[in-house]
Specification:
Elements (H helix, E strand, L loop, with lengths): L12 E9 L2 E12 L9 E10 L1 H8 L22 E2 L2 E11 L9 E7 L3 E4 L1 E4 L3 E4 L13 E4 L11 H23 L7 E4 L5 H11 L5 E6 L4 H7 L4 E4 L11 E5 L4 H11 L3 E6 L20 E2 L2 H12 L1 H22 L1 E6 L1 H12 L7 E6 L3
Parallel strand pairs: 11-12, 11-14, 12-13, 14-15, 15-16, 17-18
Antiparallel strand pairs: 1-2, 1-4, 3-5, 3-7, 3-18, 5-6, 6-10, 8-9, 9-10
Helix pairs in contact: 2-3, 2-7, 6-7
Bound molecules: NADP nicotinamide-adenine-dinucleotide phosphate.
Length: 378
């Protein structure tokens, strides 16, 4: 077994992780701990997390931490008496290998994927190709496979360095946008020609709007708050933009509702206004941070949850893993050029910056044209 430890990683490393209280997401703290590269098991890696994106999607991971196992990805370890009450929110980002006992993955390789809000992670690569590997730590075996796949950037030419922030910020969300567009087309839009998207200013929503806008005979209606209306109108991928308080004035026509907001009041207003003209109700997100059930006596179709990792499993079966990736890459490469006009990347480093960005995202105070890239490294 090769041992390719870097000089810097031979000695103990100081690491930090960011924890939030599971029952009260306004409570956040940072915890320092020591990692010993000498403790790496054969085939394991120690990676240093360079940067990660933070959006409403990460808040939803925390909101659904128990229900959908998001707390299970990066267990914080029992360093304090109340350790069980705290969790580490998963984020999408980039990391560099600083120590390796893996025969193929060398120090300095750069990796993209699902990481903890932390400075470091010990990883156990399993199935490996030139461009990717699957994390095979036992505690992750039962979690959705889409989150366990990591890209090896050094060998992956589609990851140009200037686009890294967009990759972290939007690629995982765009996968969902792509899969919903594909799902709706696969279902012939349930006979409707209008698609209503709530939280139209959200990145996952406007990624979907961008794809739907390219389809013939589909009208894309963005529903948003008054404060985000100008941003949504400026995107140019919504045929119409309607603020939440204007919905009752919309003409009733056959429509599909794709819900990124998750607001029970909004859902009821749409279902009551459209009634039987609502052909499908697709529950995707919780950006408005309400955990209310669909509601009894809701007119129209029962809202059904769309979980992107499940659809990935289906389309990987239908098209093969390479087939899905090929279609996704084509769509993504078309999206990147417009993105740079829509999103201004803001980089911040350090605990107080991470805490500030976390709190602003939690409170819904991030401007929709901002994309936050954070780091806890020195
Ligand atoms: N089911 C799945 O597989 C899946 C996959 C990907 C994403 N999602 C979900 O889609 C949602 C959007 O995620 P994203 O990362 O794309 O969002 P984002 O870009 O960070 O969205 C920001 C927008 O969400 C609304 N918002 C955010 N926080 C709010 C708050 N506290 N109060 C009221 N409105 C708030 C605002 O939009 P408006 O003013 O326009 O309402 C805001 O402009 C998340 O819930 C995410 O988990 C689900």
């Amino acid at each position: 077994m090769s041992q390719i430890l870097t000089a810097t990683a031979k000695s103990d490393l100081g690491a930090t992780q960011c924890l939030v209280r599971k029952s009260d997401l306004t409570q956040i703290r940072f915890e320092d701990f020591t990692l010993k590269p000498d403790d790496l098991q054969p085939d394991q890696l120690l990676v240093k997390i360079d940067s990660f994106a933070f959006t409403a999607n990460n808040i939803t991971y925390a909101e659904l931490g128990d229900k959908m196992a998001y707390w299970g990805f990066f267990p914080p370890g029992g360093r304090t008496a109340d350790a069980e009450d705290w969790g580490v929110i998963p984020v999408w980002g980039f990391a560099d290998v600083v120590a390796s006992r893996h025969p193929t993955i060398a120090v300095d390789e750069r990796i993209y994927g699902f990481f903890p809000m932390a400075t470091h992670l010990v990883m156990t690569p399993g199935k490996l190709t030139d461009s990717s590997f699957v994390e095979s730590a036992p505690h992750r075996a039962k979690l959705p496979p889409a989150y366990n796949s990591y890209l090896r950037i050094t060998t992956e030419p589609t990851f140009a360095e200037p686009f890294e922030p967009y990759q972290a910020l939007l690629r995982p969300l765009f996968v969902t946008s792509f899969l919903i567009d594909d799902f709706l087309a696969d279902e012939q839009f349930f006979g409707a020609q209008t698609v209503l998207l709530s939280s139209a200013s959200a990145k996952t929503a406007f990624g979907l709007a961008h794809l739907l806008h390219r389809r013939k005979n589909i009208t894309v209606v963005g529903l948003t708050s008054a404060g985000n209306r100008a941003f949504v109108e400026g995107l140019g991928c919504y045929d119409r933009v309607v603020t939440y308080d204007e919905i009752s004035a919309r003409p009733v026509e056959d429509a599909v509702y794709v819900d990124f907001a998750g607001s029970a009041d909004l859902r009821r207003a749409i279902h009551e206004h459209y009634g039987d003209a609502l052909k499908y109700s697709c529950a995707v997100g919780l950006s408005h941070r309400e955990m209310n059930p669909p509601g009894k006596g809701l007119p129209g179709p029962k809202p059904l949850f769309f979980f992107a990792p499940d659809r990935i499993v289906k389309r990987s079966r239908d098209w093969g893993r390479g087939g899905l990736e090929g279609k996704l890459n084509t769509a993504w490469n078309d999206f990147i050029p417009v993105l740079q006009h829509w999103i201004r990347v803001i980089r911040s480093n350090g605990r107080s910056a991470v805490e500030a960005a976390y709190r602003a995202t939690l409170a819904g105070k991030i401007r929709p044209d901002e994309g936050h890239i954070l780091s806890l490294r020195d």
